[in-house]
Write the structure tokens for this entry.
Amino acid sequence: MRNKPALTLIELVLVVTIVSILATAGVLGMFTIRSKQALELSAENLAGAFKQAHLFAREGRDQSDWGVRSDGGKKFSLIKSDLPENVNEVTKFQLEPPAVFDISAAEVWFNRENGGTTANVSWRVKSARAGTAMVEVTTTGVVTVTKE
């Protein structure tokens, strides 16, 4: 009877090691891609909330000023106010993990006459693996998103 060629234990260990290294690189790459997607989605959702507040204020919806409030962590809200002491949260949002705000708690208000703000505003959203994105609002209510 003839001996058939077979893998030695060393060859088997070497193959398993190479496969493990390649699998680890693939998994880390997937985490980075997921972080980038979460950052982009979070920045776009924040920009959408700013645009919605601007539009509602410009239309004079509910005879209220409209704005966006951040808790400085992962949450932000669409807010409205008919009187300075009467602020209501209309819709709550949350940034996609692992994205977080790179600002402390803040508010941006759009006035009901023209939908404008009192100053240009920049809010930064960051992710450890994906970098940062800047959401900027001009005094006229134009909202832009840039990846840094």
The mean pLDDT is 91. Residues 49 and 78 are 6 Å apart (CA to CA).
